[in-house]
Amino acid sequence: MPRQFLAEYPDDSARFDEMFSAPGVPRAHYAALYQRLLGQTAPQLRELFNDTDRQIRDNGVTYNVYDDEEGSGRPWAMDPLPLIIPAAEWAGIERGVQQRARLFNSILADLYGPQQLFHEGRLPPALVLGHPGFQRPAHGIQPPGGVFLHILAVDLARSPDGQWWVVNDRSQSPSGMGYALENRIITARLLPELFRELRVTRLASFFAALRDSIASYAPHDNGLVNTVVLTPGPYNETYFEHAYLARYLGFPLVEGQDLTVRDGCVWLKTLSGLRRVHAIIRRMDDDFCDPLELRADSALGVPGLMDVVRRGNVLLANGIGASVIETGALAGFLPGLSQHLLGEELAMPGVATWWCGETLAMEDALEKVDHLVFKSAVPHPQGRRIEPVFGEDLDEDGRARLAARVRANPRDYYAQELVSISRAPLLDRSHGRKLLARPVGLRVFAVATPEGYMVMPGGLARSASGHDARILSNQRGGGSKDVWVCGETAGAPISLLRRPVEAADLVRSGAGLSSRVVENLFWFGRYSERCDNLARYLRVALTRVTDNVDNPGEWKALAALGKSIGVLPADCKESEAVRPLLRATFDSQHHGGLASHILHLSRTGFQLRERLSSDNWRTLNALAQKIGTKPHERVGIFEALAQIDEYITSFMTLAGFALDGMTRDHGWRFLSLGRRIERLQFQTEAIEAAMKMGVKGNPEWLLEVSDSIVTYRSRYMARPEWIAVLDLLIADDTNPRGIVFQTAGLCDYVERLNASLGDMPDSGLDALHRRLLALDPGLDFHPGSRALGEAMVTLRAASASLSDQISQHYFSHAEEQARVIA
User: Which part of the chain is the DUF403 domain (predicted)?
Assistant: First the structure.
């Protein structure tokens, strides 16, 4: 059995094998995992993948690979087998990363301070001052506690002799912590017995230290610290992680437009006005953070942010300019800098490096070109990206061209020794009962605390896309693994720096929600209701076009409603309606159709990632994944009706989450406003369309579209008649689909918002509500009623006006509207 299991496992002595010390002989810390794998059948092993994929899909874990057709919805790639590291070995990694973080912080303190390293000849000025990551506006800024580097990520790789080497450092806005946490949650659920048996060190203490240390370094305002996570937005490749970390840490996720600078401070735009921001964990590149002092064409940043940082009125983690230490060209100078700045030998060596800005180093590297890889020393020299060039791939002409490029711009290049990095096991997805191996690297994270740098006990393992790949990159299709530090370890002491919550700190209103979040909640409510309305209409319309029941004027009314809601073309004949209806159901390119609006709902929900529960996410993901699975030309009516039934069930589930799973704060109120405005508009359109049938028409389809047929039958147990149908759908204040029910709720919500957030201009809805109540069912509830027709038109216009007023009053922050919250 082991022979079959390892039939395709490579026997490559040029690489260190993480699992095996010899062919078929597992290392001690991998023995339990190996025995477990041997004891599993092929279906059981395949189920590991199925469970992994299911959790990734249900939790909405995505990673945007640019130019990938799945875009921001591309699922995160993860192998269920963890990378396992013994505690004793991890202790050495931890010490090396802690020292490296201290060293880089000292380097940044000098570069943005006295710059003695230049004057003493320990660093060439051209290496730093010519690097785009060196931000001159940051020179002279002294951050709280002297901490320039709050978060550091270090990429490690193991050489054939088992030694861990540093390959890269990430300091600008290091990514991967959230993915590491999600990987851990998944593997702990997949392999719970093994997780306990190996005594895997948990990650929670690291994130607690991150949360509390940020608060400890931030300027304090009456003892309260408001921390936010700044993201460039949902189109960033790691947006899932931004939202995930914000939610896990309990911080608002904000975009640049959510923040403003006034009176030398940063403020968050909320429903109640402006709220002071004391700390920002940024996930945005330096250049984009402040268009006034950095990149002028940035639409993502916060104008004036650098001035606030300079004043010491906000903590920025990491500080602007930290990316200058990301260049690999610095590696060759670190051993000397460690001795000079820390008085210590560099604990964890980097791969041998030559910066071509030094003539002797450049010539030496070009002589050894066959054994080196040449990389860009700057992020985007002259507006273009330099891809790594492997000397072993070049012929004589290729080497000559490389030498010419390097000599033309020597400062833009550095060379590193090419090392065959270690390989780790992964299961063959196509077979399930075979073990494969892929090159693997390790990203380790460190966070600054008042007690020193703390290292995450584990990290993010990144595996290559192929067995002979030389670059580890998720953007190039690579995968990931959880990292288990196993064995007895002494837990790092955690200082609970945040003061306990007191009575004065209690929050119950939700008025501190950012305006952008509330706007997304409002539109989430509108899109969810619009999808439900469309689905119910499509179900009724598809059913009616296949029935042989003669109902005078029915199709004319259904076609009129279909046109008004953007589903059917004008003057669509009943005999020609099936294709347009199916297209509206399944074609995401049909902009007025159900499929298109489900994607709008999903995208709006994606921007609320930190606000929605896991149950909400599973329902949303299930909805979005059904879109585009089958062309509408190949779908029959029976299959379409079955799919619509599933959609409606999902929409009812989402409505249930809003009803039972959300606190009745302002966020819920705006979501509900969106739902009621949308329902009011649809119901008025449906009633107007139905009235076109005249008194001889049967309004049963109107009851079905309005989800009120069961109520009607239970009350009247007879064929639908106009006076009873219109009374139920208009004047009955107990019917959640009724017009009066919507207007009463809208008036109540607006009154509550006005009471706590300031009055909006009068939309006239309250007067219209009273006008509805004054209608006489005996005189007005019939298709020919002019008063009823005018009421429907006026209500629809009033609801549209209310929507505009809500946007203008609550979602924008003009000077005269904003109120400052201490």
Answer: 513-811
